[in-house]
Amino acid sequence: MNYNVDEKGYYGEFGGAFIPEMLYPNVENLRQQYLKIMAEPSFKKEFDQLLKDYVGRPSPLYFAKRLSEKYNTKVYLKREDLNHTGAHKVNNTIGQILMAKRLGKTRIIAETGAGQHGVATATVCALMGMECIVYMGEIDIARQAPNVARMKMLGAKVRPALSGSRTLKDATNEAIRDWINNPVDTHYIIGSAIGPHPYPDMVTRFQSVISEEIKWQLKEKEGRENPDYVVACIGGGSNAAGTFYHFLHEKEVGIIAVEAAGLGVDSGESAATSVLGKMGIIHGCKTLLMQTADGQITEPYSISAGLDYPGVGPMHAHLYKTGRAEFIAVTDDEAMQAGMVLSKLEGIIPAIESSHAFAILETRKFRPEEIVVFNLSGRGDKDLDTYIKYFKL
Ligand SMILES: *Cc1c(COP(=O)(O)O)cnc(C)c1O
After folding, report:
1. CA-CA-CA-CA torsion for 136, 141, 144, 148, nearest 10 degrees?
2. Which residue's alpha carbon is at the smallest distance from atom 5 of ligand 1?
3. Which of 59, 121, 192, 258 to mutate to test the pocket of ligand 1 (most atoms within 8 A of CB)?
C-alpha cells in the first residue's frame, strides 16, 4: 500500500486538482517545478537555515514525566509550540515563500479563518519584503481582532470576504478569485495539507521536518527511531501530515488522528470530518467533506478555531479509508479538560487544537512500555480568552 501521493496527484481515490481553467497554468507550473526546486541544494540550505535561526528548530522532543506517570505509558511531546509565531504553521509558510521566490513571484495571497495562517504568512512576507494580501471572512475579522492587528503590524493587507457565511470558505473563494485575476506575479500560500495537487504533497513535505526530527531525537533518547504511536490533531491536516510522514510506511508505528467532535459527533455542531464527511470537492481537491444531501458545504463547529474546518486533507482521507490511521473524535469539553491537565502537570499551556490530541489519553489506553509521541502543534497564548471563559478563571 502506498500512502504518498501518486504521479497523478491522488492518494487512493482522494486528491487531484479541481480548479478553474484560468488557474491551470499556475498550478501546472507549480506541479512541474516543486520537487525540482525543493531538491536544489541552495533551496535546502536556505530552508534549513531559516528553520534553524528564524523558527528555532529543531523543536525539542520532550519526555513528559508527570503525564507519563498519570497515564501509565511513555509520553513524549514534540514541541512545535516553541516555534517562532507559536505553532507548526510557519514551517509551511517559510517553505512556500522560498518556493514563490524561486518561481519569480512578487505578490503573496492567503486565506485565513482564525488568523493563525494569516499571521504565519504575513510573518514570512515581512521577512522577505514581499507584498501580502490576506483574505478573511468579515465575521472572523470581528472575532479575531488580535490576529488582525498582528497581520497589520507585519505589513499585510487584510481584505474582508463579504459573501456567504463570511467565514473561512468565503475567504478561500476570494483568494481564488484574486489568483485568477493575478496569475502571473502572485503565489497563493495555502495553509494546510489541502488544495489542488501539488499543494497537499508540498505542504506535507515542508511539515515533514517534524517527523524527520522525531526519528533522530527518539533514537538519541530511547535507542530506536520508531515510537509505538504518533498522535496529532487534524483540522485540514498539516501538523498531522508532518508528524506522520516518515512513519507512514513503518508498519510497527501506529498512527492516531484526532478530530474535533465539537459538542458531540451527532449534535449537529461538530467538525469530525472522517465520521460525518462524504466524498466531495473543497479547496480544489476531492476528499471527505461535511455537506448536505445536495452537496452544499456544512458549516463546521469546534471550540478550537484551527480544527473548525469542514474537510480534511486527501492524504488523511486515504489513511482513514485504508485503515492505516485510527481516527478518534474528541469533544470541546474533553479537549478543554486535557488542556488543563497538561498545564497543571507539565507547566505547558497548549493550544486548544493540540489539547484535542492529549484528550485521548483518558480513553485510549496504552501499555506502560509503549512510546507515544504527541505533536504539540501550538501554544495556548492565543486561546487564553477561551480558557478564561470556559473555566471562569
Ligand atoms: C491551524 C492549527 C491547527 C490545525 O491545522 P492543521 O493543518 O490540521 O495542522 C492545529 N494546531 C494549531 C496550533 C494550529 O494553529
Report:
1. 80
2. 235
3. 192
Residue with cell 486533507: 313
Per-residue model confidence as pLDDT tens digits over 188-246: 999 999 999 999 999 999 999 999 999 999 999 999 999 999 999 999 999 999 999 99
End-to-end CA distance of the chain: 49
**Cα separation, 266 vs 162, whole angstroms:** 30
Nearest atom of ligand 1 to the alpha carbon of 193: 7
Q: What is the pTM of this model?
A: 0.98
| HSE-up of residue 271 (Cα within 13 Å, Cβ side) | 28
- Name the strand (E) or helix (H) holding 359: helix 352-359
Q: For residue 51, which of 107, 105, 93 has the smallest C-alpha distance?
A: 93
In the chain, the domains with their CATH numbers are: 11-50+89-203 (3.40.50.1100), 56-87+207-391 (3.40.50.1100)
3-state secondary structure of 327: strand
- pLDDT over 90 (residue 371): yes
* 377 catalytically annotated: yes
Check if 220 is active-site. no
- Judged against a pLDDT cut of 90, whether residue 165 lies above it is answered with no
Q: Which residues line the pocket of ligand 1, CB cutoff 6 A?
A: 87, 89, 116, 192, 233-240, 306-307, 351, 353-354, 377-378
